[in-house]
Amino acid sequence: MIFSSTMQPSLHFFTPKHQSLLQTQSPLFTRKFIVNPAKKTVPRNPLPLPSPPAPSRSPPHPEVVEPMVQRERSNVLVPQHPNYPVHLNRFQKLAAVALDKIETTVIMQLEKNHVLPRMVDPAVQISGNFAPVEECPVHHGLEVVGRIPACLRGVYVRNGANPMFSPSGGHHLFDGDGMIHAVSLGLGNKASYSCRYTRTSRLVQEARFGRCMFPKPIGELHGHLGLARLGLYMARACLGLVDGSHGTGVANAGLVYFNGRLLAMSEDDLPYHVKITGDADLETIGRFNFNDQIDCPLIAHPKLDPVTGDLHTLNYNVLKKPYLKYFRFDKFGRKSRDLHVDIDQATMIHDFAITENFVVIPDHQMVFKLSEMIRGGSPVVYNKNKTSRFGVLQQNDVVGSGIQWINVPNCFCFHLWNAWEEISDTGDKIIVVIGSCMNPPDSIFNESKDTFRSELSEIRMNLRTRQSTQRVIVSGMNLEAGQVNGQYLGQKTRFVYLAIADPWPKCSGMAKVDLQTGKVTKFMYGTWRYGGEPFFVPDKKQTCNRNGNEDEGYIMGLVRDEKKEMSEMVIVKGSSMEQVAAIRLPSRVPYGFHGTFISQEELRRQVI
After folding, report:
1. How far apart are CA 106 and CA 103, in angstroms?
2. What contacts 24+ positions apart, CB below 8 Å, involve 399-404?
3. Higher pLDDT, 387 or 88
4. From start to end residue, where is composition biased (Pro residues) (predicted)?
5. Phi, psi of 210 (to 5 degrees)
6. What digits encode the pLDDT tens for the residues 545-566?
7. Which burial class, exposed, middle or buried, applies to 511 when counting CB atoms under 10 A from its CB (0-12, 13-18, 19+)?
8. CB 359 within 8 A of CB 379
9. Is 172 annotated as a binding residue?
10. How far apart are CA 229 and CA 75, in angstroms?
11. Is 355 helix (H, G, I), strand (E, B) or coil?
């Protein structure tokens, strides 16, 4: 993405706090990262700028937000001189120059002598349609093939990683700055599109310098050079060059619409509140602490109970105990309590599940050991000696002492799709969990000679005997990223809608799986066409009660035709798995992470 050293940034998009920050401290931005065409890779020296998107088919709206990133008029890839914010005093500027010199002549030179693994090599991780794009203001009047179902009136939003600046060292796909893509569906078969960065504290600060200033937690924090990167960041923080007190997260993973707010999340920070404007544009309001009720990061996959309206979520801490906390907010956003969950190690808990009465928390084999960096390794470790288990916690437990831990050996579920309660023939309460079990467990973070597998599985846990069973529902097919009908979350479901993750990490189609029969109904995108997470939207008639057919609704997802270099959103009927509409998008949409749909009724109640 492009910052211009000769252009003033638009302040309309920032909150008053950020406006003040930019006006008084950093009036100029400097470009450093160049977006490449879809079929290219991203080498260490970025490629020339692509041509701009076609102009909107409708007249400019008076409230259209100007992009944070302005296009440079020249093709100079890297500024001749560092761009230091004007608010720095002389000592800070001298210190900044010295630290920059250490970074470029020592750390980066040593990094060049190390061959980067594919999992953190920018030339691999941000190549092709994983490469970032520029912000796109609202484009109206998009071409629609077919008919948009009448029940789909609202905005589909999808999050993803979109690094603004060229990485100076290693880069993992999860490290990129958060960008939200929005497709608005209106009356008369009309659709519009926009995409915007989420203005995180980290991004705003790096924009002042025109380059990366914060370490990338997965791509750079490995071994001794990772410690050097960490030390460099701490030195800059101590000198007041950067400020981590307002969070260092990228808000690139999950999205949830709760209590009138769209929240963008990554598990390294608090959520960010993003407003959807009347023109279907996106505006970052700011970091959201639930009205001063929390001060810690939250995971990217909170659970919204369709019956109570409560939001359930977790926080994990990689440095100190308590390593895990559970939070619940009622439908009005009021936090009920902080509950510490006792676990022995700092563990990566990316997702969890809820039932009608319980919270189901995985405690698996991916753990954090910062001491591994001293020994030259990664702080994210696959602990083969640890037995995977699930904690089953009563939602009304006020202290956490009643949690039941049940071992589920050889199980690593990065995502859980649903869970519910059953009663066995002997009267025992059974917790059923549906998730995709990933092998090897560290596939996302480390290279492996073993073939990647992500198999849809059923886990059954007996709360009386504390015994578990596990079975693969669909074998021979990698199924990742998706969900059930949200109206049935926490209740027994028959269907789950998932991405066909093949060839990994691309997704060649979507699958509807019948959990009773194991039958798989596929919708394939076609040759050279790939997508991501499918999102199920129940038919409007089914949202008031759960007595209708569970699969009455529509599945939507973003698709890229890599041969024709065209992006679109497809809409598929849930019951038949047949396409009913496709919306041609005006610019390239990279592969990303998770999304949600916000109806017109919900938008009317949006907190402004």
Report:
1. 6
2. 399/339, 400/326, 400/339, 400/340, 400/341, 400/342, 403/341, 403/342, 403/361, 404/463, 404/466
3. 387
4. 45-62
5. 75, 25
6. 455 688 999 999 999 999 999 9
7. buried
8. no
9. no
10. 29
11. coil
Are 265 and 298 in contact, with CB atoms under 8 Å apart?
yes
The neighbouring-strand residues paired with 29 are none
Q: Return d(Cα 531, Cα 506) in angstroms, integer.
A: 7
Long-range contacts of 18-23 (CB under 8 A, 24+ apart): 18/199, 18/204, 18/286, 21/204, 22/204, 22/208
Residues contacting residue 548 through CB under 8 Å, at least 6 positions apart: 539, 541, 542
The one-letter code for the residue type at 25 is Q
Amino acid at 384: K
Structure token pair of residue 409: 């050996």
Q: What is the pLDDT of residues 564-602, one digit of tens each?
A: 999 999 999 999 999 999 999 999 999 999 999 999 999
Known binder of ligand: residue 340? no
Q: What SS3 class is residue 188? A: helix
Contacts of 266 (CB under 8 A, 6+ apart): 174, 178, 249, 250, 251, 252, 253, 254, 300
Q: Look at the block and give the residue holding tokens 């509409």.
A: 581
| CA distances, 164 to each of 31, 34, 171, 322, 462 (Å) | 9, 8, 12, 34, 48
pTM for this prediction: 0.83
Residues 218 and 229: their CA atoms lie apart, in Å, by 12
Is position 139 annotated in a ligand binding site? no
- What three-state secondary structure class fits 180? strand
Q: How far, in whole angstroms, is CA 201 from its chain's centroid?
A: 17
